[in-house]
Amino acid sequence: MGDHMKFSLDLAEPDHKRPSLSRRCFITASAGLAGSLAAGAAAADSLADVPPREDGADLSGHSERSQYVKLARIPESGPGKRNVDPADAINSKTPLDKLFGGITPSDLHYERSHSGAPDLDPAMHRLLVHGMVKKPLVFNVEDLKSMPSVSRVVFIECTGNGWENWKKADANLTVQNTHGLVSTNEWTGVPLKLIVDLVGKDAGSHWMLAEGGDAAGVARSIPLTDEILNEAFIAYGQNGEPLRPAHGFPMRLVMPGFEGNLNIKWLRRLKFGEQPWMTRWETARYTQLQANGKATQFQLRMDTNSVITTPSGTMAIKPGYQRINGLAWSGHGKIAKVEISTDGANSWKPAQLTQPALPKAQVRFQMDWVWDGKPTRIVSRSTDDQGNVQPDRKSFVAAMGSNALFHYNAQQTWSVDETGRVRNVLD
Amino acid sequence: MGDHMKFSLDLAEPDHKRPSLSRRCFITASAGLAGSLAAGAAAADSLADVPPREDGADLSGHSERSQYVKLARIPESGPGKRNVDPADAINSKTPLDKLFGGITPSDLHYERSHSGAPDLDPAMHRLLVHGMVKKPLVFNVEDLKSMPSVSRVVFIECTGNGWENWKKADANLTVQNTHGLVSTNEWTGVPLKLIVDLVGKDAGSHWMLAEGGDAAGVARSIPLTDEILNEAFIAYGQNGEPLRPAHGFPMRLVMPGFEGNLNIKWLRRLKFGEQPWMTRWETARYTQLQANGKATQFQLRMDTNSVITTPSGTMAIKPGYQRINGLAWSGHGKIAKVEISTDGANSWKPAQLTQPALPKAQVRFQMDWVWDGKPTRIVSRSTDDQGNVQPDRKSFVAAMGSNALFHYNAQQTWSVDETGRVRNVLD
């Protein structure tokens, strides 16, 4: 049981021939996969061990979820404020512990709003594009749909993701609680660059105001770097279908790699200018309070991050074979490497990454582990293709102080006690 | 208006700097984008042209679709048999004309069943793996979830997709009617190769029987080629969540590139042997009747295909700028090239492909076109990275005869009449 095993599947090369499992691996896997697998093997050579076939429901216009599948986000009113009245909720977190692969189902993509989720009438909605331009224009949804489009799989992450663990760790949190403000969808829309060229932006304009059509009117000043001009787009599609109201229907700005609140939902206005507008969303809100009491503005990029989703907080494991599974992402580019420690960050082993690892998208990682039944801590650490390494918590807090609230990307540690119970801890 | 325009966006290189639109392109686009865009531009420099901001609904556990979005599949009872009693439906087609990007929403993935869609209890369900193996085993869903997994974006296509146009063309069909039996999801599950190694398949076994848990008990013999051993997997996840009942919950076989009915849903059994089992699903059904009256068995791979989704059947266009948009896919590998003809297959121009173009997945293509208002026909033609070219209809029918029903992949032609009405035609 204490033997280490390693499935030699090469997930990185799906088109190549995979080497066979060794005899030793086969034995360890059979013993390690526990319970029903070994028990089933004893008298398995008959359909008597398999339930009878079942007649089904009529075919329909939509495939709904199984009655046996219970999946939901958790609405919260702030860090540590769960089980709230829905009217007080300001965000709703994705159940990372119950999902597979890299795509988040559209109805479970995390939600964050300052004044609820309006369902705007797309026939009435307009996007005004003006300011320092030669030819101000108003676009409706059909205008956008008739133009050249891009489709791209990218993560969007609330700048507050991880804020639960800034100061202390609640041992009863799940990964949905700690990291559920990040999701990955395939978004489709019109490149910002195309809009910029259609209105004829002045060369002197290096900032853009993006404003939402929600009652709060969230508005952010966005620097027009080459990267942003080349990658941002006005999305009308999400995982193949029109945006859902909670995610900005009928149009939102998508800013690959940058903080969630820049991805303005219910987008009604883009204005070009020379300077940032200093809206309340970048003065009173979304500024980063440093250790010295001063605040940093315009910390816009989401950093290199990762979290183990199985096993994770509140789960229970048994001694023997475990398949560690998790998600990694970086606003700088592609995830190049994820390492896992099963001994409290003393030693590290490389995890396998599901390919293709797309830039600025969540990537699934996996690793085999045989738990010996002794208390320990498990941690993941990601590195992106720009060389950014996810920091350990001590270094992170030393650099950021403990007054801050946003851009938490320290390594996440889960402890495992002698009963197999998994808990959220600081390090 | 007659000027041709070309947006010079390089969709293939999202990370590189895109060249600006030329002055000429800007003018053509402004004129060509028609109606509201140019009208809006006249007095656009004010928020008075944009609807007021709206308060929203409370945040919740799920983001539902907008009340303004109407999307549904079309259940049918066979070629040309629409508007049927749901109890008679045998398939339900994806609305390709209303979707964006490459991912199909899970509830709109096409559905095909011989005895409805059972919602099996995952706690009771078992997969028996036996036959020519050293150690027959029974797996439950939790066994699979605890094992190494792969996630892969692939299309699944019913072998009957396109059958509407085998013999004649109904001018009133939409692309949902003609091509709606293909969809693309991200699937997650356990590699077949891992199961094969766990049970210790005999070297002499070159075939596998896969059987479903639906009342019809669809069962197919699958040749264990290197390609299939390396790429097939037992899926439990679909677009990040558990499979939906219509798509095989709690487990299905995924066979990238091969006909839909081999992707056995509600999978209850894999049996290894020396020869195909000659089930009724490969003798009475799913055989291909040739021109000489003989039938071909085991024509398993889905060929290179493509279809223009905008504009497509029953749509209406106006003279001027159009953005042609469509989907291409191949069971052989990646789509390498899509060409579009706007003059009835006399001349062809390359379309832009959304990148990354994944192997055995649907890929979005686009091209600019300025319609001069004269009747014409538009056609797409795909080529994959193995050099397979989608055939024109005349060559296809000459090769396949007109008795056949499956594996239709001839080029799809849409006619445009002088009023702009788009219709399904044979060529």
TrEMBL record, chains A, B:
Gene3D superfamilies from the UniProt entry: 2.60.40.650, Oxidoreductase, molybdopterin-binding domain (3.90.420.10)
Biological processes, Gene Ontology terms: sulfur compound metabolic process
EC identifiers of the protein: 1.8.2.1
SUPFAM superfamilies from the UniProt entry: E set domains, Oxidoreductase molybdopterin-binding domain
Cofactor: Mo-molybdopterin
Keyword Cell inner membrane tagged: no
Pfam families reported in the protein's UniProt record: Mo-co_dimer, Oxidored_molyb
Protein name from the UniProt record: Sulfite dehydrogenase
Organism name: Bradyrhizobium rifense
Taxonomic placement: Bacteria, Pseudomonadati, Pseudomonadota, Alphaproteobacteria, Hyphomicrobiales
